[in-house]
Write a structure and sequence with these properties.
Layout (H helix, E strand, L loop, with lengths): L11 E8 L3 H13 L3 E5 L5 H5 L15 E2 L2 E2 L11 H13 L5 E3 L3 E7 L2 E6 L2 E10 L6 E2 L13 E4 L13 E5 L3 H12 L4 E4 L9 E2 L2 E2 H7 L13 H6 L16 H6 L3 E3 L2 E5 L2 E4 L3 H26 L21 E3 H4 L1 E6 L3 E2 L5 E2 L21 E3 L16 H15 L12
Parallel strand pairs: 1-2, 1-8, 2-5, 6-21, 8-22, 10-19, 11-12, 11-19, 12-15
Antiparallel strand pairs: 3-4, 6-7, 7-8, 9-20, 13-14, 16-17, 17-18
Helix pairs in contact: 1-10
Length: 427
């Protein structure tokens, strides 16, 4: 692996430092290049590392390809309503990066960002930079979440996080308990079942979505209805919206809904949320039925919203049969012995937290979350990109990251700060 690194012998100054070379950071670089703003992009791994290294083999988009809209680089393939698989996604983002000459430095880890006398000091393992502006585009998936009680599980039971899962052969023989029903949890459960592995599922409170409804993908309807244009500021409870788990569905094999009740009818053993572990004992909350009901409630809410839109606009769309709950649990199982049940592994799919330990700037709230308006912080010169609901639903996705990046880049360009008069002394 070769990296394009630059080791500044002095504290080199640029107008803007971008931290992270994923789709958000590279989109910001694209627009800064267009505006003639000098900058660097610092990436601790390779560009688009997460797409290349942090996804499982059968990974595919859950939103259709037409939503891939990086700056001046929309999806141009022959399957706009399909769902790109991992290698196709990598080709797409690499093609975008190759479309312009970004000042990208790979293999550079940012270790500290601090504001001193109105200038940002950006310390890295390759030297020190200074900048008028810093764009944090490192994403929110740094630290895989596992609960504290996971440490009490018997050491003979393998524990693996979704970030480390690549294929069913990563899981030892025996039964695997998948914990969590966000997009990763349900897709990895299905991945294991397709491989004819014995899998069980601890169902959390994640919502679910229709896939194909009344003649269109549900995301097509939502886009047509203007849902993706609604900003976080227009939400009734922005903090609650920001914290919501993504609706689960799949883009695999052309895309399909995931109704866990149907999986149960096919033999999938399900439990409620994991509440504790001790040795080989695993305990669950008695919330399986409630979580299934809540997921269906969100599913039906989306269908109803689409129905109202179709009726209001007088659109000729095919009808769908009414939804029916094809299965419900007879009883809630709240405790099992993993040894008796043959459980040899636990696959954690309960999310991630960002890591901003290196960011020594007053721009985070008490929970450690960035405080901003569409990526622009009150702290002059501090910006964020690529976060979920940074501005709209699509902010953390291919759909709208370019719009947010353009907004941040134009904010920086409009300041028109000189970049060559603030070079400081050698490190």
């Amino acid at each position: 692996m070769s990296f394009n690194t630059l080791i500044p012998k002095s504290r080199a100054h640029v107008t803007t430092v971008i931290v992270g070379a994923g789709q958000a950071g590279m989109s910001a670089s694209y627009y800064l290049c267009q505006a003639g703003v000098d900058h660097v992009v610092l990436e601790r791994h390779q560009r688009f590392h997460a797409w290349k290294e942090d996804r499982w083999d059968s990974f595919c988009l859950v939103t259709p390809n037409w939503q891939c809209r990086l700056p001046d680089f929309p999806y141009r393939g022959d399957d706009p309503t399909g769902f790109m698989v991992k290698n196709e996604i990598v080709s797409y983002v690499e093609g975008f990066c190759d479309s312009f000459d970004a000042p990208l430095h790979e293999g550079v880890t940012v270790t500290r960002v601090e504001k001193v006398d109105g200038i940002f000091e950006v310390d890295t393992d390759q030297g020190l930079w200074s900048a008028d502006n810093v764009i944090v585009a490192s994403g929110g998936y740094d630290r895989p979440i596992t609960p504290p009680f996971a440490s009490k599980l018997a050491p003979g039971i393998m524990q693996i996080h979704s970030k480390s899962y690549r294929r069913p052969s990563d899981i030892p023989d025996g039964t695997c308990l998948v914990v969590g029903t966000g997009q990763s949890g349900v897709q990895l459960m299905e991945d294991l079942r397709i491989a004819r592995r014995d899998v069980r599922l601890a169902v959390g409170p994640a919502p679910r979505s229709p896939r194909w409804y009344r003649g269109k993908d549900a995301t097509d309807w939502l886009h047509q209805m203007g849902y993706y244009d609604i900003t976080i500021a227009q939400q009734p409870d922005p903090k609650s919206t920001e914290a919501k788990t993504n609706h689960y569905m799949s883009g695999r094999d052309g895309g399909h809904e995931i109704d866990l009740r149907r999986f149960a009818m096919q033999g999938l053993q399900m439990y409620g949320s994991v509440s504790d572990m001790d040795g080989t004992t695993i305990r669950f909350l008695p919330d399986l039925e409630q979580n299934l009901d809540d997921a269906d409630k969100s599913y039906l809410g989306i269908r109803e919203t689409i129905d109202h839109y179709i009726a209001r606009e007088g659109i000729d769309a095919p009808l769908e049969p009414p939804f029916e709950k094809v299965w419900r649990p007879d009883a809630e199982i709240t405790e099992i012995d993993a040894a008796v049940e043959g459980i040899t592994s636990v696959l954690w799919c309960i999310g991630f937290r960002p890591n901003y330990d290196w960011l020594q700037v007053d721009c985070l709230d008490a929970r450690g979350r960035p405080v901003h308006t569409r990526g622009v912080c009150d702290e002059d010169g501090m910006f964020f990109l690529g976060l979920g609901w940074l501005h709209t639903w699509g902010s953390g996705r291919f759909l709208s990251v370019a719009e947010d990046a353009a907004h941040v880049a134009m904010t920086i360009a409009s300041q028109n700060k000189p970049a060559t008069k603030r070079v400081k002394s050698a490190v």
